[in-house]
Amino acid sequence: MAESPKDNENPLDIDGSNFNSEMYLECLLKCATLRQVMDKEAEVVTQSQFLQSEMQTLVYENYNKFISATETVRKMRSDFQIMQEEMNKLSENINNITSFSSNISDNLKESGNNVNRLCSTRQLLDKLQFVFLLPTQLNKAIQENRYVDAVQDYTHAQRVLQKYGNQPSFQSIQTECSEIICDLKKTLRERLLTPDTSASELAESVGLLRQLQETDSSLQDIFLTCAENRLDTHLKSLNNIVDSADILEWVEKCNNTLLADLGIVISCYHDLFDDKEMVNLPEFADKVMTQVFHLFEDVVKRPENIGTEILIRGLDKFFRKLQAMSEIISSESVSNKALDVVIQCIKHKATLQYETIQLQFKENLMRVRQSLASKGTECADLKDILNSLQIHLMQKVQASLLDLMAFLQNKLSFGLKSWCGKAVADACWTVISETLINLSEMVKKMSSLQASNNIPFELLLILAKLCLEMQESGVTTLHSHLLKLLEESAPGLSIDKKDTNSVMVHLSTAAQTALDSEVVFIGQTAAQMLRVSVLARDWLRAPEPRGPRAVCRRVVETLASADSAASQLFPTSIKPSSDSSRRTIWSRAPSSFSPINRIFSERIEVFSPAGADRAALSNGALKVALKALVECVRLRTFSRHGLQQLQVDVHFLQQRLSCMGNDERLLNSLLEDALASAQIRCVDPQLMEASIVDIICERG
After folding, report:
1. How far is it, in rounded angstroms, from Cα 159 to Cα 182?
2. Ranges for the Exocyst complex component EXOC2/Sec5 N-terminal domain (predicted)?
3. What share of the chain is helix, strand, coil (3-state, %, to 5)?
4. pTM score of the predicted model
5. Which side of the chain, N or C, has fewer Cβ within a 10 Å radius?
């Protein structure tokens, strides 16, 4: 059997109920020193004195409370006695009053009946007097334009006239009142057709005509027609200030005039007519609101309203009013159009943003073009120009994205809406994609018009590199920046993934077009020099060679200038061969240049797509130029000295062009082909020794 908690209490606990003083004292003497025993004694004495003091205080307090309670009870006993006496007197007085009231009622009963009869007679006389004076009152109220009072007086007396209209004394009054009311109806209809009539006056007139038993169908048509005429006046006024007022002024006037009156018209329509099917009102409201939306779009497109802050403030005021109007009209089309207005404003702002970026970028390109034309490739730092263009473009796009985030402010009525967040996200991506696509189209256009517009080839290289940089990192960077801004401005907003691949394809295509155009331009420039120099010379009467011709130096300078520009922007993937590995093309026997050997040689694609590195660009231009040399050589006939002059030119080109990082195999193959063709077309095919050619080239 378990022991109770009380039995388990410690007998050594001085505060417990089972405390054993002898056991405690015995334990204390055994375990404690003399000093500890004395301290414990002092502690017990102090606690005992404290408890005794507390006990005395409690006794004194309870005694005082007991004394106060005794006095309170004694006082209440005396007060209850006084109240009992007063209640007895009050009951006696009430009984007396009741008896006096009964006596008075009995005495005045007959007099009260007489007074009631007199009051009924008085009311009847007042009604008869009102009926006899009704024509005069109606005419007076109509003359003072108190149409409401006139209708109320007539409707008030109409029941009496209908009841006693057969009496001769009332027939003339009824006839006269009917004529007056017909004139009043005519006046109210004329009032409805007046353009200056306010919306409240329209509602008042319709309400009075309804009280005069006019049908609802005719009144609805008249009411809406008159309201439309009045609202047209506001529309014309708003249209007149489209070109002069800013968006805030226009919206303020639109809200306070047209939309305010439209709200009054619709509210009055609901109050006046029980049109549960809502047949006429939605069509009327949609027609008016469509014109308002068109005017608002014209206001937004004005140059004075392109500022984001003023546009958002005006749009917010307009949207708040449209929300209130949609609740009044109960039309989904107005509500949807209000959302569409905000979305269209966001799209319009995005369009302005990327058009501005495009314009500024064109201005920067024009300055770069002028700078390249004045300084040349040798003095211009193409890498610095590229970085400047790329940084400017990225900063402008990022600033535009941040500017569009203003449409997601918490204080705006549409700022936290999911549809608004999606519209802003789409608009931001439109800015990014359209900017880069326009950049791509601009580069393609400049590439196609390079020769006719004298566009520097360095500019094409810069634009091609810019497109490649934007393709590799720019598109991803801007997309990540957009997602970060959306997360900060609208946390939790789910955005559809954007298609960055299409933009990258545009950039890649534009870059390839620019590179191909630059390669063809440089190659054709050098090819034209070589073509003219070969076709215009009489190679059968050529003198003994004294050095390379001047055209070879100009060709080398042209190709070297392009190679220098490419080396600033594009990496080199092919290292030039060392001098020890080079071989001269004339060290081979003439039989190696036979047509049979050329048949089995590797085919060279002259106009293949240019690669995005220095060697590929140089090789591309080189192929175009030297292929033109080969074809022109095949059209001429050479003497021995003419062949040797071409040998010197080829050797000079090999020496100079092989130092530019070109593919030496490609270079030697084309030069071999040119010299082999000359040998075949030569009447006395004798080449000079390699050492002699070296001396002539060095001396030249």
Report:
1. 18
2. 13-216
3. 80, 0, 20
4. 0.65
5. N
